[in-house]
Amino acid sequence: MSNQAQTFRIFVSSTFSDLKAERNALQATVFPRLRELCAVKGKGARFQPIDLRWGVSDEASLDQQAMNICLGEVDRCQKISPRPNFIVLLGNRYGWMPPPAQIPDAEFQGILTRISEEEKSFLAEWYKLDTNALPPEWRLKPRQKGGDYEKYADWQPVEAELQRILSDAVGGLPLKGLRKLVYKASATHQEILTGALEQEDAPEHVFCFFRDIPDLPKTFSKPGYDKMLAARLKLEYPQGLKPSGQGLIQAVQAIPPQTSAKALHNYLTEEQSKVPERSDEEGVLEFMHSVLVDFVGRDFINLDEETWGVDDAAAAGLATLKDELRGKFSTNMFTADGVAWQGGLLPSEAQPYRMISEDHIGSLPDELDACLPILEAGYQPKNLCEALFQSLGRVILAEVDHPHVVPGEETKVVQIQPSAVLDAEGLAHHAFAEERLTFFVGREGILKEINAYLQSNARKVLAVLGEGGTGKSALMAKAAEQAQKAYPNAQLVYRFIGATPGSSDGRSLLEGLCKTISRCYGADESDVPLDYRDLVPEFAKRMGLASAEKPLILFLDSLDQLSAHQDARRLSWLPAELAEHVSLVVSSRKEKDVYQNLQAKGSLEKNLGGLEEGDGKLLLKQWLADIHRDLTAEQEGEVISKFKASNGNPLYLKLAFEEARLWTSFQKPQEELAIDVVGIIKDNMIKRLTDEGNHGKMLVSHALGYLAASRQGLAEDELVDLLSRDLDVYEWFFRQTYHLPSDLVNMAMSHLREHPDAAAHLHPESYHDAERLAIDWLKQDRNPPEPVRAFLEEVLRRADGPRLPIVLWSRLSFDLMPYLSERLVDGSALLAFYHRELGDVSKEVFLEGEKAPQFHAKLASYFRVKADPTGKKKWTGGNKHALSELPYHLTQAGERDAVFELLTDFTFLEHKAEEVGITRSKDEFGREAVTSEGVQDLQKDYDLALETFYRGSGSGVGGGPLIRTAEESGGKLRVYCPVCNRKSEVTRDQLGKVIPCPQKECKAKLKLNTFTIEMD
Question: Could you tell me which residues are beta bridge partners of residue 975?
C-alpha cells in the first residue's frame, strides 16, 4: 500500500487577454476549493494549478523561451499527475502566435528557398545557427534588458513579421502535426495539441470550456470611438484634465471620421513616444489607447496587425481547433453560448464600463462542505465554476481511490532488481541508487577491490573514503549492482544515508536495517526494538542470521551524513568484527569524528580519488548526447581543463556540464568556469541565476535560502507559498511588474472600501470604478509608499493572501531542476538539493550572519499557520510536514519561549505523535500494520532544544553535559549513557548534579535530573 500523498498538477491552457475574468474566478474560487478537496477528501493530496498566463502582462519573454517553458510544464504535469492534468479555456481569440524559438537546420534551409532576399536578411538578423545542437538548429536571439526591444510593444511588430515570413514559407514543406503547427499555430493551439489532442486517454480527464461572443465588433467607426472616449472621460475624469491633457484629447477628436483603427493606433503610439515617461501626458495617451483597444475588441479576437481588421486565418485556426476538441471531448465540456458584448455600450454612473456579461462564470460557496453536493451524480452545473469543480473534483477523488501509473514508470530500465522485501524506505533507497546508475563510467580498479573483499570473508568492515563530490554514492550503487549479479544467493541490503530523512537518524537507520534483514531471512520483525540503545546490539544479532547458503551483503553510503542525535556518529552500533557470511561496505568523507571512529573499528580502507581524464570525457559525451547537445573544441577544452584542475572531481564535471549545456556555438565571449566545486557553484551557477537579466537576485536568493534552511526539503507548493508570502520578494515583483495580479487588486479594493481615507489624496470621489482606484492607489509610487507597504505586509500574512504569478517560479524551477532532487517525507514529495555541496554553498551565500534565523523564523511562521490554521492551538490543520517542522524552525530561529510553550503543549504533542511518520503496510495475512515515528521525532525536538538553549549536547564529549534521567528499579538507580551505550549505577545524592559517566573509559558528562523513572 503506497504511503505517498498524490499531487494533482493541472495545466491551464488559455489565451491571455480575453479570458481574464474566467481565469480570475478560477484562481479566486475554484482552485482554493479543489485544494481543500484534495487535502480533506483526497488523503492529504496536493493541488497545483499551473496557469502561466495569470498575473503577467504579456505572453512573451526576453529570453524567447516562453513556448519551451509552456510545453515543458505540460509535460511535467502529465508526468506528475496521470489524471487530471489539463484544462482548456477558449473564447473567440486564437491567441498569441510566436515564431519558433528553435528551427532545425534542415527546415531552415527549406524555408530559405521559399522567401525573398529581403526576408532572408530579416531572418538572419534574428536567427543564429547553433551547431552545438544535435542536429544543428537556428535559435531566435533573446531580447536584451534595457535594449530597443525590451518592451513587448516595441518587439511585437518584429515578432509578427518573423511569424508571417515563416508561416508563409513552410506551406510547401513536407511537415506534419506539431512540426508544422509550431510555425502556423497559436501558443494555445500548440499546448492543446501536446496536452490533450495527442493524449489517448485524455477524454477521461481533460476539461474544456468554450465561450462564444456572437456580436463582437467587426468594423471600426471613428465617430463611435469619439463618443465612447467622451463618455469614459466624463465618468473616469469628472474633475477634468490639465490643459496639456485636454489638448491631446482635442487633437484626437479632430482626426477625420474616416480614420481607421490602425491609423489611430499609429498616431497614439507616435505621440506617446514624444512625451516623458510616467508623465500626465503619457497617462492620457495610454488611456485613449486603452479605449481604442476596448472599442475594437482587440483583446477578444485576433486582429491583422497590418490593418487591425479581423484576422481571418486566425479565426479559421480557432474554428478548426474547436471542432477537433468538440469531436474528442464532447462529454467533458461546458459551453457558454451567447455571452453578450458590452464593450460598445456607453457607460454611465449607474452602469460602469464592462467588456462582456459575466453571468456564465458564477462562483462557489466559501465552505467546502457546501460545494460537495456539486460532485453528486445527477447535479447539473449552472456555470463555469461549478462545471470545473465538478469535472476535476470527480476525477481527483476517483484517482485517489484507484490511482493510475505515472507514464514511463513501467518502461524504466532497472539496474538493481528490487527485492520483494523492500518497504517504502527501501524503495526510496532503490530509486536513489537507480538515479546514480543512469550514467556511470570507470572505477574498474576499486570495483575489483570491493569484489575481492566480498569474496574474502574478511570479517572486517570495508571503508571507501573520499572527498565530497568524488562519486562515492555512484560507486556504492554500482558495487551493489555488480554484487547482486555476482552473488545471486546473497541477500543484498543498501542504504544511502541522507537520501531520506530517516536514514540520517541513527535510530531510524538501525530499525530499518534490522527489519529489512529480518524479512530477508524470514525472521519475525515485530520484535525489533524501538529504542536506540536496544537497537545497537540488535543490529549485530540480526546480521547473524546470515548463512553460507544465504550470505548477507550490506552497503552503507555516507556515514559522515549521520546526525549527532543519540551519538550515532560514534559508530558504537558498527561491529568491530562481523558475523560469519556477512560483508559490510561503508563509505565516508574523512571527517574527523567519523573517520577516527572507523579507524577504531579496525576497518579496511580504500581511498577513492578522482576520475581519469578519459573517463571524464566519456561521461561528458554521454550527458551531452542525452540532451542532444555538443560542444565546440574550445568549449570542451574549457570544461576538461577545469575538470582536471579539480583533481577529476565528478561533481565538478557535473556542474560544469550544467553550465556548458547552455552554451551555443556562436557564443562570444566564452564563459570561464571557476576552478573548484565551491567556485563553480558560486561564480557560475549562482551568478548566472541571480543576474537581473535572468531571474534576479531577490527571487533566487530567497528560493535557495528557504531550501537551504529547510530540514528535509520543501514541497513545491510550500516553496511557492513561502515566496508569495515573503514581503521582500513580493515587493520586488510588485515594483517591476506592469500588470498587477487580480487577487492583489481585489484585496486593495476591499481595503479601500474599509479605509477610504487611505486614498483621499487621489481624489477618490472622482473614481466611479473601484478597480481603477485600487490600481492607481497601488501604482502611485512603486517604492512602494508606506501605506501600500503596510497593506502588503498585512495581506501577505493571510492564508488566502495574494500569490506570485506561477510563471516566475516555473521559469526558475526549470533552471534549478538539475540541482534538485525529490525525496519522500511523510507521504509528500519534497524538493531538496541534489548534492550536499549545493546546500552547503547555498547556506554560506544566502544564510550568512543574521539571515539564517530570519529564514527559520519565516518557515516557523508559515508552518505554524499550516499546522494550526485557526490560531487557537487546536493543531487540526492535518499537515504532517508542518507538525514535523515547526519545533525545528522555532529552535533554529532562537525563539526559546515559543519552543518551550510548544513542547509543553500536550495537544500539539498528541497530534504530532499520532500523525507524523505514520507508515501503513500489510503483513502476509493481509492485516494492516501501522508504525509511527512521531514520538521519536518529538524526542529529537527535545534534544535539539536542550542542545540549543540549555547546552545539552548530542555528542557528549567536548560539549555541555547530557541531560539524563535515572531509572529506578529494585531500590537501585541506573543511568544510561548514549556515548558508551551502557547503563551504570548512580547514587541518590548524585541526582541534580553533573557527574562523569561511571564507565572509566567514557569521558562524557551527565547532568542528572532531580526526578527518576520507576521501572517495572
Answer: 984
